[in-house]
Design goal:
With 192 residues, the protein is mostly helical. It contains 10 helices and no strands. 33% of the residues are buried. The mean pLDDT is 95.
């Protein structure tokens, strides 16, 4: 198979992440939660901002966030209750290794190395990327809380225990006291 065919197949597989739902929200009766792709996009933006605040490499951090859940195109998303029974971390690495091994070396090697770095949690960028991933869940939880799903507060409580950077903790504190709808108030154009 030529490299363009391998890249094309990979990109179609990545498109599957638009259809893989974030399963943890089903435990609190969210019928149509966001997709993994939606989660990854906002996590990458959060990662970029957090990296700037924490003086880490913002591009590397954002890419780490963006590629973090690629394996879920093959494994689907497994919520934390399921993680209690399955060693999902080793399955993630196995799936992502197979995904990236099929790509041209200059692409696959870089993507897989970001996965390993994220999993290792030893570099500043990997720590910031993990905080960004957690914060994205916190933002989503707050949006669900504000739309009437009060049990989503459990996510905020648990996320606070795992954040490692000062900036992420400060952002979590701010989001907890902020309406998820505040951003658009005052932006509506009204006609007289």
């Amino acid at each position: 198979m030529g490299k363009n065919k391998e890249i094309t197949d990979f990109l179609f597989e990545v498109g599957n992440l638009k259809r893989v739902k974030r399963s943890g929200w089903w435990t609190i009766n969210i019928k149509d939660p966001e997709s993994v792709a939606e989660h990854s996009m906002r996590a990458a933006v959060i990662g970029f901002a957090l990296a700037k605040l924490e003086k880490a490499d913002p591009e590397k951090t954002a890419l780490m966030c963006l590629f973090n859940d690629l394996h879920e195109s093959r494994l689907n998303d497994l919520h934390k209750v399921g993680h209690r029974y399955i060693d999902f971390r080793s399955a993630e690495t196995k799936a992502q290794k197979e995904q990236t091994d099929s790509l041209p070396k200059e692409i696959g090697k870089d993507i897989f190395s970001m996965h390993k770095e994220f999993q290792g949690q030893e570099t500043k960028e990997s720590i910031v990327a993990r905080d960004a991933d957690l914060l994205e869940n916190a933002f989503q939880a707050k949006e669900y809380i504000d739309s009437g799903h009060k049990d989503a507060d459990d996510w905020l409580i648990n996320i606070r225990k795992h954040l490692r950077t000062k900036s992420a903790i400060e952002l979590l504190t701010e989001l907890e006291k902020t309406s998820s709808n505040r951003w658009w108030k005052g932006l509506k154009k009204t006609e007289r």
